[in-house]
Amino acid sequence: MPSPETGRLPSLAWLPRFHAWIDLAVVIAVLVTTNLIAHFTTAWASIATVPIAACVLVAMMRRRGMRWSELGLSPRHWKKGTLYSVAAVALVLAVVAIGIALPFTRQFFLSERYATISGALVASMIIIPLQTVIPEELAFRGVLHGTLERVWGARGVFAAGSLLFGLWHVASSFGLTAGNAGLSAFLGAGLLAQIAGIVGAVIATAAAGFVFTWLRRRSGSILAPIALHWSLNGAGALAAAFVWHATLN
Questions:
Q1: What is the helix (H) or strand (E) element at residue 244, kind and residue range?
Q2: pLDDT digits over 38-50, tens only?
Q3: What pTM was estimated for this model as a whole?
């Protein structure tokens, strides 16, 4: 309805920003719900929930008008994303090799989750990329990145995106110190050790999220954070199996 003073229709410039806030609230709500279902319901839910949720979020935001470039999925950024991916993987492999070579840091790779080479290979090449890395990067460096950028710009993406990625790992950090020989020796046992392990995991994954976000913005593609994320988890699993096997023998 036109204003009686000016005869003009009221400005609706605020509407796209309001829609962006609604989108952000929905995305965060879906991520929180997904995390709770994946970690506190059934074993099958822990396998399927995150990949399904990531696909739903991408489809939902595409329907809401988000461009492929905003999701980090534009083909025109694949070449640059690939170059950053190769560099990131090479750096991680070098750091992991140094870590398992030094006696002080080698103990932190001793995780009973990867006690066999075959189990570590399956985890590294199939479970970790399909169940964890690709879905999480689609959700965080894809959908959440795009929605945060519409609301707060780059600073919001780095600050809020990294923090939310750290908090995403709270549930998966329960019992972290009990399953890792190096962390158990360093932090001890008991409730305080578990809390320290969770806090440490949140800080570490928030820092990793910051680096993933930098790679995403620098390359314009989620290929680079996917590669770095996979190399951290996948190479870590293989290194854990190698150290475990070498220690037992």
A1: helix 223-248
A2: 999 998 999 999 9
A3: 0.85
